[in-house]
Structures are given as C-alpha cells and as structure tokens.
C-alpha cells in the first residue's frame, strides 16, 4: 500500500512540476522534423519513406485519445509496413523476456551499463 501511495504521490508531484513550466509556442511537426532528414528522391521500395509520410504517422501516434493510433494501425501504415512480418507477430518468445529481478539490484551506473546490459545481450545472441 505504501508503494502505491508513493507512486501516486510521485505522479502528482510530476504533474505539478510540469504545470509550472512556462508555456512554449506550439511548433509544427515540419519544424521539428524537417524534410532534409528524409530521402529526397525515394525509389519504389521506399516510396512511403517521405517526410510527409513520417509526419503523418507521427501525428496519428501523438493524438490524444480516443483517436490515438493503435499498434495494429501503425503496423498497417505504409511508412512501417515494409518491415511487418505477420508470422512473427504472434510467434512464441524465443527468450524468457525481461528479468524483473534485475530491478532490485543496487548497482553503480557503470556496472549497469557495461556488465549487466552487455552480458545479457551477448548471452541472447
């Protein structure tokens, strides 16, 4: 019960902290993600990898509920559909997944970065 209370208190404090930030002028996605970051003349294979397609998908994904883009919608979107492999979508996990017991470890940051993270990556390969 204490953990739930602490989590709730932390969320409330974060909301308060954010609410005191100065209001910034709204920027368009075109300002944030300029055309120069994308292919200028995409060939047929990359026809949906244009800046406007990326901004369109991001706009859908950043929309506040109820119109929020779902994972299924994103997978069907032409911008990312070229990587979608339906046979892998519901495939069984090949590894046990994330080991939550790691969260309880009290390790220095350098050890988290090197020993823990890299050894786990190398084990799974």
Would you kindly provide a brief summary of this structure?
Helices cover 50% and strands 0% of the residues. It is an all-alpha fold and 125 residues long.
Which percent range describes the beta-strand content? Answer: under 5%
Rounded mean pLDDT score: 71
CATH architecture of the domain at 2-88: Orthogonal Bundle
- Outline the low-pLDDT stretches: 1-6
Q: What is the 3D form?
A: extended
CATH superfamily of the domain at 2-88: Transferase(Phosphotransferase) domain 1
Helices, by number, come to 7
Q: Helices and strands: which structural class?
A: mainly alpha
Compute the separation of the termini in Å. Answer: 40 Å
Give a quick account of the main beta sheet: strands, pairing sense, barrel closure. Answer: none
Could you say what the CATH topology of the domain at 2-88 is called?
A: Transferase(Phosphotransferase), domain 1
Instruction: Please write the string of helix (H) and strand (E) elements.
Output: HHHHHHH
Helical residue percent band: 40-55%
What is the name of the CATH class of the domain at 2-88? Answer: Mainly Alpha
Secondary structure tally: strands: 0
Based on CA atoms alone, the radius of gyration comes out at 21 Å
């Amino acid at each position: 019960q204490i953990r739930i209370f602490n989590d709730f208190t932390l969320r409330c404090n974060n909301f308060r902290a954010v609410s005191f930030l100065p209001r910034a002028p709204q920027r368009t996605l075109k300002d944030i993600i300029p055309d120069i970051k994308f292919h200028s003349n995409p060939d047929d294979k990359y026809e949906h990898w244009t800046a406007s397609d990326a901004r369109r998908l991001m706009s859908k994904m950043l929309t506040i509920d109820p119109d929020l883009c779902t994972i299924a919608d994103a997978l069907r979107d032409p911008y990312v559909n070229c990587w979608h492999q339906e046979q892998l979508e519901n495939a069984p996990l090949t590894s046990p997944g994330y080991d939550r017991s790691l969260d309880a470890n009290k390790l220095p940051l350098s050890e988290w970065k090197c020993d823990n993270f890299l050894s786990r990556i190398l084990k799974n390969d």
